[in-house]
User: Fold Glycerol operon regulatory protein from Candidatus Segetimicrobium genomatis.
Amino acid sequence: MRVRQAAKASGIRAVERAVAILRTFSSGAPELSVSELGRAVGLHKSTVHRLLGTLERTGFVVQDPGTKRYRLGLPLFELGSMVVNTLEVRRVARPHLEEIHRACGETVHLGILDEGEVVYIDKIESTRRVRMYSQVGRRAPAHCTGLGKVLLAHLPDASLADVIERRGLRRFTSKTITSPKELRDHCALIRQQGYALDTGEHEELIQCAAAAIYDHTGKAVAAVSITSVAAAMDQHRVAEHASLVQQAARKISEGLGASLSIRHKEGPAPTRPVVARPSTPGR
Amino acid sequence: MRVRQAAKASGIRAVERAVAILRTFSSGAPELSVSELGRAVGLHKSTVHRLLGTLERTGFVVQDPGTKRYRLGLPLFELGSMVVNTLEVRRVARPHLEEIHRACGETVHLGILDEGEVVYIDKIESTRRVRMYSQVGRRAPAHCTGLGKVLLAHLPDASLADVIERRGLRRFTSKTITSPKELRDHCALIRQQGYALDTGEHEELIQCAAAAIYDHTGKAVAAVSITSVAAAMDQHRVAEHASLVQQAARKISEGLGASLSIRHKEGPAPTRPVVARPSTPGR
DNA sequence: ATGCCCGTTCCACGCTGTGGGACATTCCCG
DNA sequence: CGGGAATGTCCCACAGCGTGGAACGGGCAT
Assistant:
């Protein structure tokens, strides 16, 4: 047997292995073979094959009959969509993201912090020719992005320290903040001014303004940002973007506070749109 | 679901159970307790608890410390996003969906057929007050929706028959087509006119126009649709919507054909008889 | 208080997942 | 064209691991 993890706090081995296999798939390698997976997770071919067979019967992976290679299946997409669709903040935020987009035409992101990283949970693409590349569902470092920094700024000190320790402060550009102390000071500034700016700290040519969204308890649960190309920006527009995200974040926060009281199971969107039935196919 | 499968074609039980647990979560029940899950999948509390513990350590589920209940976790969202982000058609289609939306202001859907059902893989929400409720990632029956019918119409006869047998033709409204022969005739009409109309066949007040998108091999891989409220529609606008989806579908199809030349490794799969496989691994 | 149901933990049993091996096939290189 | 080395798939005996019953403790109605 390989080295693998120390099997310390034990879970069900087969399930852990199945998950490990699923997680081996990535955007860069969306199709993998039995042997590739075996090497990646350190398991015997036959074991991987059997696990894949089980996963295939559930639809979590599909095998290309021609190449014999495996890809992730749509049921995973369904489950994943459920996760984000049930995130209330996303539902509430959508129209406000659209409003921002109409106002400035730039790429607008909605993101949350998970395990010390930013996860994009919604996005409206810029209408401009030059765009930043991003994908909903992907992760980005927190310490050098607008979304990430504004969310870090609202973390308790201990949590921020924890994130720094676990994720480090990797340098991406000459602007990247890599000193814990400097980051902490910067976070204080962000809290004070009510928004975060990212001026090429993750990617040289990219600028970003972000503001935090709060739930009814006052906790920062998400953030909204406008991303633009640095070359197209001046003082005035930076201020405009900062103002836009702050306004939108405030409105979204209000929406979260209000809608929370009527929150329970199964939300037929009690507010605005006249709903025409959630269409549940028979089972 | 009572009986569970007869353990005939065996997979790894623990993995199957873990997947069953994950799939028990739904939009209507995004949070479940150990006991609820136990009842739902027919397993002992302790077994479910152990499985959940394992799933939690992988992040696939998270437990609310307060209520002790479980929800699906973000890593699932990431994996699910990967699935759809690697679907080329979605990337290519996006701008054209936006174009349709600008032209008519209605809800625009992009969908594919999977296991005889429609899966929504992208969507632009209507700007109107009255909206149809739908979610990306959800499924809908094929025989009574615009997207579904236009995709069924491009299936080989045998596959269509297979879908009918496996999914049935459940009645949703008085307009729903429930006769296999009638559906087949209707499909012929759809092929002839190049688009499908759904006039209240799934939900009374909802109308829909849809057209198929083809890949470079000529196979219908997806479809695009405009959904609107029947009351707001007249002959002229129906024709307009039909025309819009057809134009967009054609452009998207061209995009798929063109982009194929730069499609990296592992391109072929030119043959492949398109059968919606019953997901039975070779045995 | 008193049930009732919940989540959690523990443990001996024996079923079930394991991985080595065998095999056919495909691909690549000589 | 043929041999070698990959690959995917199948099979099987062993024992390790997942299983579920039982027991414990806490929370919430009654």
